[in-house]
Amino acid sequence: MIPSRPKIYFIRHGETDWNLEGRLQGQKDIPLNDVGRVQAEEAGRKLQALVPHVEDLAYVASPMTRTRETMEILRETLGLHPESYKLDERLVELTFGSWEGMTWKEVRKAEPSLAALREQDKWHYAPPGGGESYAMLVDRVRPILDDLTRDTVIVAHGGVARAFLSICCGVNPRQAASMDIWQGRVLVIEGRSYRWV
């Protein structure tokens, strides 16, 4: 029998102005806005209610500004030292290549045929200009899961959450590519199941 993987408490970074405007952030380093900071506190309170001993968890974040800010506010809310957590480069968001900074409406107007190709197969399509597909992201983040030795709080991005749901919970790639990944909530991944808190 395969040993069970430690529990993951996945938190997507709080809102940024680009989220608000519907812009593709990818690997552009955009900070949280005021709503995002409140969402980070909310996620911290939800985690506190879920886990009696938050100090026993491991804490790992994507190195981007929006994820580090979220982690530090969350840890402060939990009464933990804000900066005592690890960074993992593999957790950065997938890159949208030359589409970063654009809204989907702008992408569809500028490159309708490429936008249509992505809509047909979001999981495997890599945007132009060095973009990544979700399938490529899965290959990048899968080893992180093998490295987990205890229950872990991971603060990262929507794309990374979709990749984890596909790898850990067997969510169908077509479905995973279009799932809403909420800000200010905790996605609990335990064994093959997941739930939002």
Shape: globular
| Oligomeric composition of the shown chains | single chain
Overall average pLDDT: 96
Largest sheet: 6 strands, mixed
Approximately how much beta-strand content do the residues carry? 5-15%
The secondary-structure element order is EHHEHEHHHEHHEE
The total beta strand count reads 6
The strand order across the widest sheet is: 3-2-4-1-5-6
Radius of gyration: 16 Å
* Uncertain segments: none
| Helical fraction | 40-55%
Give me the secondary-structure category: alpha/beta
From the N-terminal CA to the C-terminal CA, the straight-line distance is 29 Å
The number of helical segments is 8
Describe, in plain words, how this protein is organized in 3D.
By secondary structure, this protein is an alpha/beta fold. It is 42% helix and 12% strand. It contains eight helices and six strands; from the N terminus they run E-H-H-E-H-E-H-H-H-E-H-H-E-E. It has helices at 17-21, 34-50, 65-77, 104-110, 112-120, 134-147, 158-169, 173-177, and strands spanning 8-12, 58-61, 86-87, 152-156, 187-190, 193-196. Helix 4 (104-110) packs across helix 5 (112-120) and helix 6 packs across helix 7 (158-169). The longest helix is centred in the first third of the chain and has 17 residues, at 34-50. The radius of gyration is 16 Å and the shape is globular. The relative contact order is 0.22.
What's this entry about, in short?
About 40% of the residues lie in helices and about 10% in strands. The chain is α/β, with parallel strands linked by helices and about 200 residues long. The model has no long low-confidence stretch (mean pLDDT about 95).
